[in-house]
Structures are given as C-alpha cells and as structure tokens.
C-alpha cells in the first residue's frame, strides 16, 4: 500500500516507518523540514514538504502535532498544541479531498475526562471525522508509550525524583514495540472508529516506576510529593490518569501483546 505518515521523525513515526517498509509498503513522510528528516529516516522513504503535491495515497497516519512534553503546559502552550493538530487536519483535507485515502488514522490519546488534554482530543477527533467523512476514519487513542529512550521515560526526566503520591492509580500504557504492531493491525484490517492502543496488562503507577527502577532506567525515588505540587505542571496529568482500559478491538483482531520495553 501507499501510506502517508505525518510525524514520521517522532518516537512512534520512526519505528512505524521501519516496520511498514519491512512489510513492503511504499511510505511517504510529510515534513516541514525534509532535509532534517532525511538524516533520521531510511533512504527508501519518500519525503514530501508542505509545498509538494501529495500523490495518490491509500492510508494516512496522522501522528504530527506540537509536543506535549517539551514545554510546561501554559494556556498559551495548550492552544499551540490544539492549533497545530487542527491546522494539520485541515491541510490534509484540502490536499487530499480530490483523491481521498481509503483510511485516515488520527492520533488521539487516552485521557482523564476532566483534564486539559481531554478537551483538545475531543476537538481533534471531531475535526478529523468531519473533514474525512468521505472515507474511513480511525481514532487511534494512544496510552502512554513506553520506550527505553523516549516516551514516558523521557517525560519522567522533567519531574523531581520523588514519590508520585501513593501510586495506586492505574496508568494505561503500551510499549513502543506493541504500539507499532497495533498500528500495523489497524492499517491491515482497516479498523475504524475508536481504537484504544494500550496494553492488555494493567499496572498502577507505583509498579510502573518500580519496573523502571529495577531496570535501572531511572534513579531511585525517595521523597514524598504532594498532589498539589504535581498539578503545578499539567504534564503530570499523564501520570495521574486512573483508568483501566481493555484494548477490545486489537484483541478481536488477534493482537498478542509482548509488553516488552
């Protein structure tokens, strides 16, 4: 298949490009900085800038948008995160409306219902469904992605080396390896509507952090931290979420989770 990926140089995008190439797909990556992207991606990938005409595409995997973890989440920053995603959906709509893809996959997230992220995700999902109503749309709701080099591990580096409350809250997560395999299933099976991309094995935050410590991925955490202090930085919502989610659609499509970080 001919597959277009946005956010192809990110944590998920790079790994997804590699897997899809191995599967024999023709991969296009849309990038604002194709010269920089060329240094990070396999040579077989065709890079497109925002001024290039997008060729006929069967599947779009829209992963791009301003980073949630790079900066403290002020009101201004939250608006930037929202706008970057809405604007990109609009751009893709106008670029592809004459020859729409068979499947449009929009990245979203598993969030707390009352968090600042929930509002953004709802707006992004609605815009994707509205713009691409002429085709199949999959809302890929990602849990926290675990990787030794990035994802939650990288995110933890922003926070003090302290205890996270009592740590009994259940944080939906998925390993990077499983995340990429889940996206491959969505593409192969043309899954639509909401697909929760999270592990079928549930862990609370305390056990997640314990795993990281035992693996010597992060330093030992020793001091208490008040919930109020953790809320100062809204990025902490990613660690305060308390949901037990079963990836029903992935399991129905024979997804076998390895849970290997």
Question: What are the salient characteristics of this protein?
Answer:
single chain; 261 residues; alpha/beta; 7-stranded parallel β-sheet; two-stranded parallel sheet; 10 helices; globular
What would you say this structure looks like, in words?
By secondary structure, this protein is an alpha/beta fold. 38% of the residues lie in helices and 16% in strands. The chain has helices at 11-22, 34-40, 75-96, 116-131, 152-156, 176-189, 205-214, 227-230, 237-240, 248-252; strands at 2-6, 26-30, 46-48, 59-62, 103-109, 136-142, 144-146, 173-175, 193-197. It has a seven-stranded parallel sheet with strand order 3-2-1-4-5-6-9, with helices on both faces. Strands 7-8 form a two-stranded parallel ribbon. Helix 4 (116-131) links the parallel strand 5 (103-109) and strand 6 (136-142). The protein is globular and about 50 Å long.
What can be said about this structure in brief?
By secondary structure, this protein is an alpha/beta fold. 38% of the residues lie in helices and 16% in strands. It is built from ten helices and nine strands.
Poorly predicted regions: 220-226
DSSP summary, beta strand count: 9
Percent in helix? 25-40%
- Taken in chain order, the helices and strands follow as EHEHEEHEHEEHEHEHHHH
Chain-averaged pLDDT? 85
Biggest sheet architecture:
7 strands, parallel
Q: Helical stretch count?
A: 10
The strand order across the widest sheet is 3-2-1-4-5-6-9
Rg on CA atoms, Å: 18 Å
What is the overall silhouette? globular
Distance between the termini: 29 Å
Q: What percent of residues are in strands?
A: 15-25%
Structural class: alpha/beta
């Amino acid at each position: 298949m001919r597959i277009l990926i946005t956010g192809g140089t990110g944590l998920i995008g790079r790994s997804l490009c590699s897997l899809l190439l191995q599967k024999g797909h023709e991969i296009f990556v849309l990038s604002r900085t194709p010269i920089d992207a060329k240094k990070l991606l396999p040579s077989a990938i065709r890079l497109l800038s925002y001024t290039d005409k997008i060729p006929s595409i069967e599947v779009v995997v829209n992963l791009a948008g301003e980073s949630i973890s790079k900066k403290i989440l002020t009101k201004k920053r939250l608006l930037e995160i929202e706008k970057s995603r809405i604007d990109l959906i609009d751009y893709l709509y106008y670029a592809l409306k004459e020859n729409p893809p068979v499947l449009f996959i929009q990245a979203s997230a598993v969030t707390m219902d009352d968090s600042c992220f929930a509002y953004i995700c709802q707006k992004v999902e609605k815009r994707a469904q509205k713009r691409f109503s002429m085709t199949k749309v999959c809302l890929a709701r990602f849990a926290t992605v675990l990787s030794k080099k990035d994802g939650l591990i990288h995110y933890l580096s922003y926070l003090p080396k302290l205890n996270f409350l009592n740590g009994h809250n259940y944080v939906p997560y998925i390993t990077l390896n499983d995340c990429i395999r889940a996206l491959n299933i969505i593409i192969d099976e043309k899954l639509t509507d909401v697909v929760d991309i999270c592990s079928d094995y549930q862990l609370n935050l305390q056990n997640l952090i314990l795993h990281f410590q035992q693996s010597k991925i992060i330093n030992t955490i020793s001091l208490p931290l008040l919930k109020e202090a953790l809320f100062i930085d809204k990025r902490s919502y990613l660690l305060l979420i308390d949901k037990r989610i079963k990836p029903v659609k992935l399991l129905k499509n024979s997804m076998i989770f390895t849970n290997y970080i």
